[in-house]
Predict the structure of Molecular chaperone.
Amino acid sequence: MLPTLIRCSAVWLGLLLAAPAQAGIVLNATRVIYQAKDKEVSFVVSNSGTTDILAQSWLETGKDITEAENLPFVVTPPLARMSGNARQMIRIIYAGEGLPDDRESVFWLNVQEIPQTAKDNQLQIAIRQRIKLFYRPAALNGDPLEAAKKLEWRLHDGRLEVSNPTPFHVSMIQIAARQQGKALFTADSRMLAPRETVRFALKSLGRGQAMDIDFISINDFGAQEPLTAKVSEGQTIRAMSATTGSQ
């Protein structure tokens, strides 16, 4: 019985390992910024594999909804046949109405690889990649590259609060709060929407002692900038660059 199980497991493992080798879509961006002044934006999908695939592209809000989303965008082509090692440009066109003009809007851009052919006893997997699309109205004040430094951090009733007063989304990774070297809070990632405030529960917060906040912001180009702040009870602090020490 055991040898049979081992042989079956080996067969399934081989199938799983073989599937990714057949094809693989690669996007030329980690995020897309749609400036309101632009008639359209585009990105490139590459088929890094040697077999033909279908590349299906669509937008969604990312919210938990059951009905089809009626978003004011056109993604074209929504379905593209790609041969091995081929490239395909995908265009996104905004209908011109339906989104707020005083803040950014964010959507999920999905590109799914659908293998077209299958050999006998070969497992096929439809692989989907998701990146963020930010629609940025023309009249927004401020610099989106400085938005992470505008976040307002404070301690309130034993909790850590952070507010985003800007009209831009702020994406953060590797968020950590420490007090005298002791970890009080960690999070892998978090995105703050415009005008949003979030609160984090802390572990064993010592009264009257400052707390160190460290995180990495992700900008429009996908670049990472480490930031740091020292927060005390009753104060509102903005982070500064951890590499230059400047606001």
